Amino acid sequence: MLVQTYPLFKRSSLFILTLSFLFSCCSINSVITESKLGSILSPYEKQIDNSQQIVLVHKKNIQSSEYLVYLLQKHNKKWNLFSEPMNASVGRNGVASIGKKREGDGKTPAGIFSIKHTFGYNASINTKMPYRQVLDDDLWIDDPKAPDYNKWVKKTETSAKSFEKMKRSDEQYKYGIIIEYNTDPIIEGHGSAIFMHVWKGKNSSTAGCVAVSEKNIIKILSWLDPDANPMIIIYQ
Question: Domain residues for 22?
Answer without folding.
Answer: 13-234
